Amino acid sequence: MNTLIISTSSFDIDNNPPLQQLLQKGMRIITNPHRRKLTEDEIIELLKAGSVGMIAGIEPLTEQVFQAAPNLKVISRCGTGLDSVDLSAAGNRGITVLNTPEAPAQAVAELTLGFILSLLRQIGAIDQAVRKGEWPRTQGRLLAAQTVGIIGLGHIGRRVARLCQAFEATVIAHDPHATQVPEGVTLLTLEQLLTSADIITLHLPYSPATHHLLNAQAFAAMKPQAIVINAARGGLVDENALADALKSGKVSAAALDVFEHEPYQGTLLELNNVMVTSHVGSLARESRQRMEIEAAENLLQGLIKAGVIQ
């Protein structure tokens, strides 16, 4: 019996038609017993069952992992990023790697907008003050009056641009690989964007080339009182340099949904001008359901193409 691995921390198997098709074709499904991001050793242990396919989360899929899974034919990422997958090693072993870039885009874009509005109007801080018996008359800032700098104009970045434009914000962007640029968005170099934007939000993949894209030098170049948002990938931001910029007031506020090491337990948690969430960007019910179904459909079609099933 062929085995499939689902390594994401949660997955709705019962309401997923492509997965039900795979079960009807005699596939056996093994799920993540830890209900969290798996380590390299833990995913190796799961794949030892002789798996032919897997629906992957963000666990490290390395050469060592593939060595432990000689029957693996298809990896279907439930999500966008592929930085956790050694694509070269997968290609050398004839393993097809697929992802679902469109499904989570709206959810991440809406979380980004939520971050922007919350930070501009200081909603979280005011909420906490009122709960303490205070009644602050805090003056916030209008999104309509801001210039939003979007780094990365892929599926998510384009949606963020449209949402910000609906609030009448000025939108600028940096993406040397952009193939579609929303109307009214001005493309700039990274250096121009950093010095021009009031709000800087990241929507690009992580790679060695983008490691710590926002570092001490980048923060120093930003406008006074800039706001920084990362709902893309941990590693794009030098978190220690960001903490220093927040402490000095060079960056007025930040919001992060992703971190280099998760769960995050670093210095940023000590600062009251930072909003943090637990990598929940894609976890809107409707987007999650679509993402899981697309991941399973990708897996089904990949296994058919690989000749594992008919």
Protein model, in words:
There is one protein chain. By secondary structure, the chain is α/β, with parallel strands linked by helices. It has two domains: 3-103 and 285-305, Rossmann fold (3-Layer(aba) Sandwich), CATH 3.40.50.720; 105-276, 3-Layer(aba) Sandwich (Rossmann fold). The protein contains eleven helices and twelve strands. The protein has a seven-stranded parallel β-sheet, sandwiched between helices. A five-stranded parallel β-sheet has the order 2-1-3-4-5. Helix 1 links the parallel strand 1 (3-6) and strand 2 (28-31). It is elongated, with a radius of gyration of 21 Å.
Number of helical segments with 4 or more residues? 11
Spatial strand order of the main sheet? 8-7-6-9-10-11-12
Mean pLDDT: 96
Which fold name corresponds to the CATH topology of the largest domain?
Rossmann fold
